[in-house]
Specification:
The protein is an all-alpha fold. 70% of the residues lie in helices and 0% in strands.
């Protein structure tokens, strides 16, 4: 099964982004849905990291935030369990390691209250992220819209770089062309109005 962006053509990448994971299959393989999904996610993330590094960093930051919330929740639950089983000092150490001031952790009640507060913060943040993701999911495009977005992007790349883009082009090469087009566009935007005529 194809695992890397450079193993696909632009046409196959478009099909993959439209949900057709069969473009990843080589020879007589029969990968599971989970394997196909994992490979597709990896390839689309690789495309984004080359074509739009800023967007890829934003996506990574969102995953990192989710991971940090999970760790924060687990630490608070462990501290609560320790406190309830009479190990107040161990619970206090965990909260201090989480940057909670020791002055707020003098009693067992204060430690438990702080743990509850942390769990409340985590729930609030998760709910906020969930609502944001739900709004984003409701705006997700259908297959035809995804395909049209790709064609619009290809047309833009051809227009900016003044090069033809074949659908058989290597997907990794195309991702680099997109990145070059974006960078060229940024450079053009910073130039004085008439300077673009000589580019």
């Amino acid at each position: 099964m194809k695992q890397r962006l450079d193993q696909l053509t632009l046409q196959e990448l478009i099909e993959l982004s439209c949900g057709d994971a069969s473009v990843l299959i080589e020879h007589d393989e029969t990968p599971t849905v989970e394997e196909s999904s994992k490979a597709a996610s990896h390839i689309l993330a690789e495309y984004k990291s080359i074509a739009s590094p800023a967007q890829a960093r934003m996506d990574l930051s969102e995953k990192e935030k989710t991971t940090k919330l999970t760790i924060k929740e687990r630490c608070a639950r462990i501290a609560m369990a320790l406190c309830q089983s009479g190990r107040t000092d161990d619970a206090r150490q965990i909260l201090v390691a989480m940057s909670v001031g020791e002055e707020h952790l003098k009693t067992e009640e204060a430690i438990l209250a702080r743990c509850q507060s942390i769990l409340g913060e985590v729930d609030y943040e998760r709910q906020r992220m969930s609502e944001y993701n739900a709004k984003r999911a409701s705006k997700q495009k259908g297959t035809d819209q995804v395909r049209h977005s790709w064609y619009a992007e290809i047309a833009s790349v051809m227009s900016i770089l003044k090069v033809p883009v074949e659908m058989r082009i290597n997907a990794c090469v195309y991702a680099n062309l997109v990145h070059q087009a974006v960078e060229r566009n940024k450079a053009m935007a910073k130039m004085p109005p008439l300077a673009g005529m000589f580019m």
